[in-house]
């Protein structure tokens, strides 16, 4: 028996950045909110004194327990999908605060080009430049329209940074100056400058100094202890939902977070969502939480799976191109982006590689988005080459030059010798959507509630390979200029296929936004066209993937969505139909 | 172990380092003035561990005198001594003792692996474990299952079968058990296991090898609380200082900074 629970104003799936921002904004406006979080109850206290590489980086203590729910994966439409069984291939955030707790804190904005990618590409190169398989489209919003929400998120999350010499316009400077500069960063910046590029410091949510945000929450100054990625911060010095938006919502007395609440589906009558049906995984009881608005603020896989399983919207069919739910899956894939590049080994230099912070580093935007002329290139979109000093922890970092064996005497000698004598730079590249890269429900495998797993199909297009090659070549050029004595340069082969790794945490699509229900699932307030009291917010709404880390853009769209939710609660209807008055 | 140092020596210097860097951290970030020090954020660490006398460590149950580590070095998972001897020999080949410092055995790696296999990692507790299993993947899809991810066997079984396979190979090829074989003979077998030239059932030999290497590195460089990285010797070789509170005062330094390592036991201040 499903027990019905008394109606609230809003029920939200997930307590990460998106759920937290929605909760903070709704509760400040006087609405009652329930968040259903399937992970455990976590506080900052859980992260004090636990700088433990094995626990977090090798046993994945903060990641989704795959015994309850995972995805299946295939790299061709013609294959059967296999389940992702271990977190080494799927770092999906879990527990209170979601992936916003274990992130590195790298805090880029995306480019004006990204939001109008189709129009701007056609305008500059003509329609023929767009590959046949591509399903890229405009987002229905411009950078200028999104800018105030970027500013809002950056101020909430204490972002520390400096002006990007070739970056898009900003209404205000970063709330904090960039983090400290290290010799490693200086070396990267000097080399890229010498090559004629425009280096700047990576903006970070690791705060350069103690800061109080507009909601009155304090983020402490970072101490560069080097435990950010995959870790909760020991010092409350990396902005996360627990210390900011969830805290703000909690203070209003109008928010309740229910942990161990595994959402099964959205209950609805075809036109209106009634609430969420979930299982309390500590008792096995099933509940229906009724609400005026329902917000899906889970990771891209959760949002898409819930829509498909709840039979909301038309599922995408790659054979006909019809339907929208599950369409335009994109991401940063391990063997195309982020984990490939050039590693330099230095004989006479020794670096303090064990110190650092997740967002500590520098980058160049000369090849990002459409900053480079693509007329004579065989790909669209680009890559940002960065050096990141996030701190080399000893189990994971045992790099040796290619001519050293992978174990034994030489390996031990060189892995120890080069531990503090190597630097890695990587091209994080964009990925454009194609018709065969999408999500649907798996025909075979089931989750712990007996529901089908989400199936992810990823096919790389020629241009994705070409973009990755160009990025790696740029890394090699820069690493050479940095003076490495030896280099390991990754080789991207022409026949590279998706390797079933969902490791980067950067995945998008499934319920994409747009200006019209013809080609999108939600409007630019993340409101479902087909079901106006349902908001599907987060990376799931992004029609493609840029060459930057996504959190700040997700945060910006979450603020915009929250504005839409409040307007809907007041007035009803499609909130994108007419412009909103700016309320903050 | 013969080279074990008393806990007092392990702890005294790092605590001092820790204490001063933490004070600097507090000073630098203005937290003292902000009145946050007494709050939940730092309360446990500051009042808990850093000012305690080292001799309190010795009173912890099961840790009397210098015997603390030896009593935890007994087999939890492996029942046959021979399997454990093969594990000792194989991990030592991956990370051998040399002029830089101890190898896998002296770092406690075999006991570390034994403890891990006896726990949730050994039985793949958080993994998705539903059929159908597809272990016979094409070359290109093998990356879906490094470490035997797609195998129906759990990690404990993969280790048992892999170690016994190496022992069997050694007896077949050289007429001696793996642990009695020469260095060259052991390396030959391990090279073939890594290259998948030795056949195993239920999992590829190469996947067992990936697991073996990963677990060896974990045991060498994890926090000593897990039974590996004995006396933080792994960290000392790599010049990794462990759970240091703050690098605020060093992060801009052009010089390499050499610090004594800090374990989580020191850091948490039990």
Task: Describe the fold and architecture.
The complex is a heterodimer of chains A (584) and B (270). Chain A is α+β, with helices and mostly antiparallel strands. Chain A has twelve helices and 21 strands. Chain A has helices spanning 17-28, 53-58, 99-102, 112-115, 117-125, 143-156, 183-194, 245-251, 300-309, 409-417, 462-481, 551-571; strands at 2-13, 33-36, 71-74, 82-83, 199-201, 211-212, 218-219, 255-258, 261-268, 273-280, 286-296, 330-331, 342-345, 361-364, 383-388, 422-429, 438-446, 452-457, 486-489, 507-508, 534-536. In chain A, the strands form five sheets. In chain A, strands 1, 2, 8, 9, 10, 11 and 21 form a seven-stranded mixed sheet that branches. A six-stranded antiparallel sheet of chain A has the order 5-14-15-16-13-19. The two termini of chain A are 44 Å apart. The model of chain A has no long low-confidence stretch (mean pLDDT 96). Chain B folds into two domains: 7-72 and 244-268, no CATH class; 81-221, no CATH class. Chain B has helices at 7-29, 31-34, 40-50, 68-72, 81-94, 104-107, 109-118, 155-174, 183-194, 205-221, 233-238, 264-268. In chain B, α5 (81-94) packs across α8, α7 packs across α10 (205-221) and α8 (155-174) crosses α9. Chain B is globular and about 55 Å long. Mean pLDDT of chain B is 79; it is low at 1-66 and 139-147.
Describe the SSE topology:
The complex is a heterodimer of chains A (584) and B (270).
Chain A: E1 2-13, H1 17-28, E2 33-36, H2 53-58, E3 71-74, E4 82-83, H3 99-102, H4 112-115, H5 117-125, H6 143-156, H7 183-194, E5 199-201, E6 211-212, E7 218-219, H8 245-251, E8 255-258, E9 261-268, E10 273-280, E11 286-296, H9 300-309, E12 330-331, E13 342-345, E14 361-364, E15 383-388, H10 409-417, E16 422-429, E17 438-446, E18 452-457, H11 462-481, E19 486-489, E20 507-508, E21 534-536, H12 551-571
Parallel strand pairs in A: 1-2, 1-11, 2-8, 3-18, 11-21
Antiparallel strand pairs in A: 3-4, 5-14, 6-7, 9-10, 10-11, 12-20, 13-16, 13-19, 14-15, 15-16, 17-18
Helix pairs in contact in A: 1-8, 1-12, 6-12
Chain B: H1 7-29, H2 31-34, H3 40-50, H4 68-72, H5 81-94, H6 104-107, H7 109-118, H8 155-174, H9 183-194, H10 205-221, H11 233-238, H12 264-268
């Amino acid at each position: 028996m499903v027990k019905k629970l008394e109606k609230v104003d809003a029920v939200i799936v997930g307590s990460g950045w998106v759920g937290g921002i929605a909760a903070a904004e709704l509760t400040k406006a006087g609405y009652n909110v329930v968040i259903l979080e399937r992970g455990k109850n976590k506080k900052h206290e859980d992260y004090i004194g636990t700088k433990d590489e094995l626990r977090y980086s090798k046993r994945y203590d903060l990641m989704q327990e795959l015994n309850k729910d995972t995805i299946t994966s295939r790299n061709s439409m013609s294959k059967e999908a296999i389940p992702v069984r271990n977190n080494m291939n799927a770092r999906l955030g879990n527990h209170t605060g979601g992936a916003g707790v274990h992130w590195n804190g790298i805090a880029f904005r995306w480019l004006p080009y990204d939001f109008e990618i189709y129009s701007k590409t056609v305008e500059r190169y003509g329609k023929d430049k767009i590959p046949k398989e591509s399903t890229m489209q405009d987002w229905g919003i411009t950078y200028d329209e999104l800018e105030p929400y970027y500013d809002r998120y950056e101020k909430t999350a204490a972002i520390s940074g400096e002006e990007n010499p070739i970056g898009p316009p900003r209404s205000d400077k970063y709330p904090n100056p960039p983090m400290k500069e290290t010799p490693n960063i200086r070396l990267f910046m000097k080399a890229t400058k010498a090559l004629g590029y425009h280096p700047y410091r990576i903006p970070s949510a690791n705060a350069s100094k103690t800061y109080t945000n507009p909601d009155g929450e304090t983020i402490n100054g970072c101490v560069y202890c080097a435990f950010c990625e995959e870790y909760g911060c020991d010092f409350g010095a990396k902005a996360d939902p627990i210390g900011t938006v969830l805290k703000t919502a909690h203070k209003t007395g109008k928010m309740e977070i229910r942990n161990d609440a595994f959402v099964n589906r959205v209950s609805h009558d075809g036109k209106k969502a009634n609430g969420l049906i979930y299982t309390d995984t500590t008792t096995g009881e099933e509940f229906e939480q009724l609400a005026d608005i329902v917000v899906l603020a889970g990771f891209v896989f959760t949002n898409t799976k819930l829509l498909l399983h709840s039979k909301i919207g038309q599922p995408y069919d790659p054979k006909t191109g019809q339907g929208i739910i599950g369409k335009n899956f994109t991401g940063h894939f391990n063997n195309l982006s982020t984990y490939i590049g050039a590693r330099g080994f230095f004989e006479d230099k020794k670096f303090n590689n064990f110190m650092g912070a997740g967002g500590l580093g520098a980058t160049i935007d000369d090849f990002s988005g459409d900053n480079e002329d693509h007329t004579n290139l065989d790909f669209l979109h680009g890559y940002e080459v960065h050096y990141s000093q996030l701190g080399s922890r000893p189990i994971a970092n045992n790099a040796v030059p290619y001519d050293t064996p992978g174990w034994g005497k030489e390996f031990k000698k060189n892995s120890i010798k080069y531990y503090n004598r190597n630097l890695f730079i990587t091209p994080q590249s964009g990925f454009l959507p194609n018709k065969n890269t999408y999500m649907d429900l798996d025909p075979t495998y089931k989750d712990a509630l007996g529901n089908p797993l989400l199936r992810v199909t990823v096919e790389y297009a020629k241009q994705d390979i070409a973009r990755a090659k160009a990025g790696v070549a740029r890394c090699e050029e820069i690493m050479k200029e940095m003076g490495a004595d030896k280099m390991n340069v990754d080789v991207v082969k022409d026949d590279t296929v998706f390797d079933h790794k969902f490791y980067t945490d950067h995945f998008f699509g499934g319920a994409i936004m747009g200006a019209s229900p013809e080609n999108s699932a939600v409007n630019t307030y993340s409101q479902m066209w087909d079901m106006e009291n349902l908001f599907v917010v987060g990376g799931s709404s992004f029609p493609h993937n840029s060459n930057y880390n996504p959190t700040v853009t997700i945060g910006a769209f979450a603020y915009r969505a929250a504005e839409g939710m409040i307007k809907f609660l007041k007035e009803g209807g499609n909130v994108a139909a007419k412009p909103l008055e700016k309320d903050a | 172990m013969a080279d074990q140092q008393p806990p007092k020596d392990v702890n005294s210097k790092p605590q001092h380092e820790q204490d001063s860097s933490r004070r600097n951290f507090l000073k630098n970030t203005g937290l003292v003035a902000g009145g946050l020090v007494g709050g939940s954020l730092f309360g446990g660490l500051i009042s808990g561990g850093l000012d305690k006398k080292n001799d309190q460590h010795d009173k912890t149950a099961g840790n009397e005198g210098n015997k603390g580590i030896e009593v935890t070095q007994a087999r939890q998972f492996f029942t046959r001594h021979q399997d454990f001897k093969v594990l000792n020999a194989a991990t030592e080949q991956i990370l051998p003792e040399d002029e830089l410092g101890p190898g896998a055995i002296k770092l406690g790696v075999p006991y570390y692996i034994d403890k891990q296999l006896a726990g949730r990692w050994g039985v793949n507790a958080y993994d998705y474990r539903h059929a159908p299993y597809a272990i016979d993947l094409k070359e290109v899809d093998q990356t879906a299952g490094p470490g035997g991810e797609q195998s129906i066997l759990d990690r404990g079984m993969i280790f048992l079968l892999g170690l016994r396979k190496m022992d069997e190979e050694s007896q077949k090829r050289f007429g001696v058990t793996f642990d009695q074989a020469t260095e060259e003979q052991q390396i030959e077998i391990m090279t073939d296991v890594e290259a998948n030239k030795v056949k195993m059932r239920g999992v590829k030999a190469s996947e067992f090898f990936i697991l073996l290497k990963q677990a060896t590195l974990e045991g060498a460089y994890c926090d000593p609380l897990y039974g590996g990285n004995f006396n933080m010797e792994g960290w000392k070789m790599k010049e990794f200082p462990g759970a240091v509170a703050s690098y605020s005062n060093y992060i801009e330094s052009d010089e390499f900074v050499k610090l004594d390592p800090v374990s989580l036991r020191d850091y948490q201040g039990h």
